[in-house]
Task: structure prediction
Amino acid sequence: MPWEYLNGHRHIKQLCRITRRREQKNKGNYTEETAYMITSLSSSASAEMLLDLNRKHWSCENNLNWVKDRVFMEDKSTIRKDNAPIVLSLLRSFVISIIATISTKIGSVQKTV
Result:
């Protein structure tokens, strides 16, 4: 992404390009995709650090999907009509975030007692 497109965006400090190469083991094929990352982190953030942040971001996404499937059996849901699957997925995410918030607050109260 050329820098000239970023005029007026003073908070952007770095751009990076991440190329992912994936092997489909059963077929022996490779697929490749390129993603771009925009960050306000200064140049002191190394390429390794930016890649680590990117991996952690996707780890959170994957963990949420794992919890939704494991606890709510989302992958086995037979609800398909209209917007119902999207609405239920959002509700499941909302419930998970409430439980996480309550758990964190209970944990911090127990530490202070």
